[in-house]
């Protein structure tokens, strides 16, 4: 599976506990398909919304024990047994769909609180579903998971600034645009500027702070899953580094991870010891 195709969902890599890989793959397929319904192809916003509502109806039917219909049989044929076996919280799966539905009609966000509310439904459920699979339900772990997932979503927004604006979407909060003297319509028209780059630097710092807030979660998730989480955290921070190294000009160029980024990510992941400073972040506490 490609991390780039759905950046907020950790890949079911060799670090994922083998017993949980089918569940992670099923959840990925569910989220990926819903995201495609919201974004891909030539459907109108009304048709996208109708498709997502039908997708939600299918989710609830399968969760209730019904056989999947032909339209999304591969998705729900895999997900249905996972919901039953692991007693997945249906509300988290609903939250993801709610965010995708919002994408069909909301293209701008007034302030950071509004954007975080979107992340609460578009990104945070992913982390909470994975923690549920790992049997981690401590309130502090859930809060840290939310911080990591929101940070990943925000970093992805700044990384994909040029892509999203070509789709008519602006995830830069309007209050921050006003504070930096950036015209949202100009950004949507593809106009780069020093003010815009300063704005991206500002909101990137916000995302980094959220990631640092959530990073101690890596010491609460056991075994191989904890090591995968370390790499997820460091992957997000590595993208943030690339955005900064590119002068915060992501309206023009999309930075991406390359194979040679694996070594510094691994080195930083190894340095994330409880109670000790680690490269790219503050002191990590348990």
UniProtKB/TrEMBL annotation:
Enzyme's top EC category: transferase
Q: What is its EC number?
A: 2.5.1.32
User: Which keywords has UniProt assigned to this entry?
Assistant: Transferase
Task: Extract the Pfam families matched here.
Answer: SQS_PSY (PF00494)
Query: Which Gene Ontology MF annotations are present?
Result: geranylgeranyl diphosphate synthase activity
Per the record's keyword annotation, is Cell inner membrane included, yes or no?
A: no
**Keyword DNA repair recorded:** no
InterPro entries found in the cross-reference section: HSQ_synthase_HpnC, Isoprenoid_synthase_dom_sf, Squ/phyt_synthse, Trans_IPPS_bact-type
Superkingdom assignment: Bacteria
Instruction: State the name under which the record lists this protein.
Output: Phytoene synthase
Tell me which species this is from.
Answer: Piscinibacter sakaiensis
């Amino acid at each position: 599976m490609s991390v780039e195709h759905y950046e907020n969902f950790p890949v079911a890599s060799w670090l994922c506990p083998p017993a949980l890989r089918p569940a992670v793959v099923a959840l990925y397929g569910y989220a990926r398909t819903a995201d495609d319904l919201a974004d891909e192809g030539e459907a109108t916003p009304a048709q996208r919304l109708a498709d997502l509502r039908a997708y939600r109806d299918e989710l609830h039917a399968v969760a209730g024990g019904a056989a999947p219909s032909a339209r999304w049989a591969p998705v729900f044929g895999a997900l249905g047994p996972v919901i039953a076996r692991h007693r997945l919280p249906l509300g988290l799966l609903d939250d993801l769909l709610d965010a995708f539905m919002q994408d069909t009609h909301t293209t701008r966000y007034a302030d950071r609180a509004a954007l975080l509310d979107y992340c609460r439904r578009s990104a945070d459920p992913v982390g909470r579903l994975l923690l549920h699979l790992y049997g981690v339900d401590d309130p502090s772990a859930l809060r840290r998971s939310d911080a990591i997932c929101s940070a990943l979503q925000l970093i992805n927004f700044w990384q994909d600034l040029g892509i999203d604006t070509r789709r008519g979407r602006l995830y830069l909060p309007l209050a921050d645009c006003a504070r930096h003297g950036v015209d949202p319509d100009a950004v949507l028209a593809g106009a780069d500027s020093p003010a815009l780059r300063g704005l991206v630097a500002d909101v990137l710092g916000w995302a980094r702070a959220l990631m640092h807030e959530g990073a101690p979660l890596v010491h609460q998730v056991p075994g191989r899953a904890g090591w995968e989480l370390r790499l997820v955290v460091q992957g997000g921070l590595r993208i943030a580094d690339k955005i900064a190294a590119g002068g915060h000009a992501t309206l023009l160029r999309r930075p991406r991870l390359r194979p040679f980024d694996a070594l510094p990510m691994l080195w930083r992941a190894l340095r994330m010891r409880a109670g000790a400073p680690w490269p790219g972040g503050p002191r990590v506490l348990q």
